[in-house]
Amino acid sequence: MPPLPGHHTAMLIQAAGVAARYGTTPALSGIDLTLERGEIVTVIGPNGSGKSTLMKLLIGAIPPTEGRVTRAPGLTVGYVPQRLEIDRTMPITVDRFLSLGSRVKPAQKAAMLARVGLADVLNRQMSSLSGGQFQRVMLAQALLTKPDLLALDEATQGLDQPGVAAFYRLIAEVRDELGCAILMISHDLHVVMSATDRVICLNGHICCEGAPTVVTDTPEYRALFGLGTEGALALYRHEHDHHH
Amino acid sequence: MLDDFLFRATLAGLAVALAAGPLGCFVVWRRMAYFGDATAHAAILGVALSLTFSVSLYLGVGLTVSVIALAVASLTGRGFAPDTILGVAAHGGLATGLVAVSFLPGVRTDITAYLFGDILAVGKSDLAVIALGAAGVAALTVWRWVPLLTATLHPDLAIARGIAPRREQLFLTLALAALVAVALKVVGALLITAMLIIPAAAARPLTRTPEAMALTAIALGALSVTGGLRLSATADTPAGPSIVVIAVILFLVTATLGSLRR
Hints:
The complex is a heterodimer.
Chain A: E1 11-22, E2 25-36, E3 40-44, H1 51-59, E4 66-71, E5 77-80, H2 94-98, H3 106-115, H4 131-144, E6 149-153, H5 161-178, E7 181-186, E8 191-193, E9 198-202, E10 206-210, H6 219-225, E11 233-235
Parallel strand pairs in A: 3-7, 3-9, 5-6, 6-7
Antiparallel strand pairs in A: 1-2, 1-4, 8-11, 9-10
Helix pairs in contact in A: 3-4
Chain B: H1 5-29, H2 33-53, H3 57-75, H4 82-103, H5 112-116, H6 124-143, H7 145-153, H8 155-160, H9 165-187, H10 192-203, H11 210-235, H12 239-261
Helix pairs in contact in B: 1-6, 1-9, 1-10, 1-11, 2-3, 2-4, 2-9, 2-10, 3-9, 6-9, 7-9, 10-11, 10-12, 11-12
């Protein structure tokens, strides 16, 4: 049996000296980055800083204009897009949505929905789900592709803070169970998922990177995040040596 | 039976309904109604060019519509809003076509036959082309169904699954162009979009999955064709518009049912 993709090496994606342009407008430059199996990387940055471009470069949706992106052979990416609206013009049940592309056994679908904390939604219309339910279905859809890398593009948009915290806890559990890498984009510059191994602050290039500060026990944390987030959120302290 | 003009008309209409049902669902989901209009109006230019160069109407219209549809697709998003480009293409194609037809020497052309269709004049060779074309469009839609559906739901979701949304868009554009060429004789340039959109929209309230909506759209399109032809035969109304009128009635019925159920 051939080795499973990526199992012989921890490296999933490597970007070396990568730049991207839209027409003549530079979007990203000088990106060096390695994603390894099992790690959670959060990319933060202001609007227009190139976060989505970086994700597209890494998953291979767009080619770099400079440098090289190397992906482990056979890499499977599970993708959870930014709050996606399924138009009411398209009738589609959760059941049908989860087997889009490849057939998935009904028992598998039910088990995955239970895993992401949803019960009895298989026969609901996608357009009738609440924001939190919808994002969980999107996550289930991504996980059913058995991804090596789970890519989340501002997947928590439209969720309230306890909703975000619950979503983050779920992601951390998923990583522990499946051992996949997680690449997450967030528009929040200071508050990140506490299970994040590495925060990358982006603004056209990588401004700084490091681990978030977990401050769950301090009264200030509770004042900031309130109760009910149960340590799923953490602060990121930026260390910039330059100004924009 | 093929010698009966009404039988030929029914078969031609059913063939168009078969191809238009699933394709019309994508037009509805992707909000391409105006795109359908633009390509259909451009068909009149195709008619003029076919007559000028004495080539098959189906070929001339198919090629002209493909070129205009691809031009619209590639121009969109370069400083003009999509509806502006479509407006230019639709009315430009229609007006240029009408002007060009008036220049044709010695050809007595009844342009209304192309604007409103002439389903009762479908001959045996027309029927063969319409049936083959419709089967081709239907086969293309079935073949690209899952990638097109995924790209329609979310382009990036499609990319993550190894699907190229722009390529799928190209398939859809070409399928639309082919359908316009095939349906020109059946419902005419002004009403082709109706055959795409109305059965699909009428199917929406009755269905829970994309596949069911496509199949129901085919069934409602077929019902419109047979009902419209019957209305035309008994009340001596124009055939193409009668088909569309029946489709609209079906739409009103299912829309009412849908809102009552909610």
